[in-house]
Specification:
Distance between the termini: 52 Å
Number of domains: 1
CATH topology: Methylamine Dehydrogenase, Chain H
CATH class: Mainly Beta
Number of helices: 3
Radius of gyration: 20 Å
Structural class: mainly beta
Strand content: 35-45%
Shape: globular
């Protein structure tokens, strides 16, 4: 780990300006929204739709991908790939291209698309055809930050000009690379567990490495920033068997907590009032731990554990309860946040696999299945299904949805849909 010294007045000014312009309050600027926890804080989204109702526009994308569409200002940003490993096509790895594309927020028309040359060889096959563009970008006034695993982190200006590119490791995996970048002050932080078993922080202006924390194993979740009472912030991530808390400015590990969950960790964490909530593991499991401790806090700060969880989908927190969906059983869960007590577990009719992270808006939870069914449930501790929707579209819905300005953005592996009340 390397310390960061010599922060200039210009850098401080840059960070302040980056937080002020030119986004909107109703943006979705990173994976899982403004707070990174799947909650839309401004307004709602349509409850029901079909192929010919409440579809404001749809847009064909430059190529497949499973990253979330990012909504910022008057643009939507997506990542894609072409040339190799496309479902139904094989091609040659030499033809693989990675893409960052900008679309018009109002009508979905392509504004620009830029190629990123991959570092080859890439993984020859990605399991379940998740592909080479699963990492969701993060966007701010100073630019667009996209992560492509072994091929590195790339920053683009809003006009499409590439500003810098930095590699964070060369490791590959059969499941591919799926964590998304997080912006914090002057830093862009990436979970490079697959690439180098590290958390890596880069300078947003230059792309140079600022710090690196090692020992990040079997971790496919995007870190979250947890606000503590008193104003301090911690960076928290789940790895095999543990949740870890870091100082986001320096990369110093502050605390660890045993999860009692074996193997890899995919679902993202959520937090509220300084308490971090986790579900995960093939066998299922969950826990709550109070952030802000030091050292091994398993005995002192772990509040509860349960045997229910999800191996893929990420939860949401709302009004003292946690909500999530099991990725393969079609069961929606609600648990009391203070105790972990399961309030309901309800199987949804005809639900298939769910890989997308849950999102919440205006007291409603949206669960998206891989076949395109979207279940809308009331976010309250009594099970109530408000709607089951489908667009009748071909393709897989592995991407997590985005909600912004009263619109819901759903992505298949080839098409982006904008849904809203007409």
């Amino acid at each position: 780990m390397r310390g960061w010294t010599g922060l200039t007045a210009l850098g401080i000014m840059f960070g302040l300006l980056g937080s002020l312009m030119p986004g909107r309050a109703a943006d979705w600027p990173q994976f899982r929204g403004p707070t990174g926890m799947g909650v839309c804080p401004n307004g709602g989204a349509p409850v029901s739709w079909s192929a010919d109702r409440n579809v404001l526009w749809k847009a064909d994308l430059p190529g497949p991908g499973t990253s979330t569409p990012i909504v910022f200002g008057d643009r939507i940003y997506v990542t894609c790939y072409t040339g190799f490993g496309i479902p139904g096509e094989r091609g040659s790895m030499d033809d693989l291209k990675l893409h960052v594309a900008a679309l018009d927020r109002g009508n979905g028309k392509l504004v620009w698309s830029r190629e990123v040359q991959p570092d080859l060889p890439e993984q020859d096959r990605i399991r379940e055809e998740h592909g080479y563009a699963s990492n969701t970008p993060a966007v701010a006034a100073d630019g667009v930050y996209a992560f492509f695993g072994k091929s590195g982190v790339v920053k683009f200006a809003h006009d499409g000009k590439q500003l810098w590119r930095t590699r964070v490791g060369s490791g590959l995996h059969g499941w591919g690379s799926g964590t998304s970048v997080v912006l914090h002050g002057e830093l862009v932080i990436v979970n490079a567990s697959v690439e180098s078993e590290s958390l890596v922080a880069l300078d947003r202006r230059t792309g140079k490495e600022v710090w690196r924390a090692r020992g990040i194993k079997e971790s496919w979740n995007t870190p979250i920033l947890v606000q503590l009472p008193g104003g301090k912030t911690e960076l928290v991530v789940a790895i095999q068997g543990k949740i870890l808390g870091f100082d986001p400015a320096t990369g110093q590990e502050l605390w660890s907590c045993a999860t009692d969950i074996g193997w890899y960790m995919v679902p993202c964490l959520v937090a509220h009032d300084g308490v971090v909530y986790c579900v995960g593991g093939r066998s299922g499991g969950g826990l709550a731990v109070r952030a802000g401790g030091r050292g091994d806090v398993t005995q002192s700060h772990r509040l509860w554990t349960i045997r229910k969880g999800s191996n893929v989908t990420s939860p949401v927190f709302h009004d003292g309860h946690l909500y999530w969906m099991h990725e393969s059983l079609g069961i929606a869960y609600c648990a009391e946040a203070k105790s972990g007590k399961i309030v309901y577990e309800q199987r949804l009719d005809r639900a298939d696999q769910v890989y997308a992270a849950a999102v919440l808006a205006d007291g409603k939870i949206y669960y998206v299945s891989r076949s395109g069914q979207v279940f809308v449930l009331a976010a309250r501790p009594v099970f109530e299904k408000l709607a089951t929707n489908t667009l009748g579209a071909r393709g897989r819905f592995d991407s997590s949805p985005a909600i912004a300005d009263g619109r819901l953005y759903l992505r298949t592996d080839r098409t982006l849909y904008c849904l809203g009340e007409k």
